[in-house]
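Whether sequence alone determines local backbone shape is best considered at the level of individual chains. The sequence in question and its structure tokens are set out directly beneath this paragraph.

===
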Amino acid sequence: MEEIAISKFKATCLGVLERVRKSKTPVRITRRGKPIAEIVPPTPENSHDGFGSMAGSFAIDGDIVSPVIDLNDFEALRD
């Protein structure tokens, strides 16, 4: 991981952010040699919402409404 001093980051902030976005490699910001922050590339936009994330990944095959077994097999339903 690349490390950059906070003073250099302050002077080149937009360039560093663009480099992280393009290269997908994080950058650690340091003050006096100690890490204070990390800039990481964004996650893909479709991955942060779980709802609908598997759309189109499977198909329904057959009847999903009717019982799987014959209703006469249930003892409670017999006359």
Remarks:
- The mean pLDDT is 86.
- Residues 10 and 16 are 10 Å apart (CA to CA).
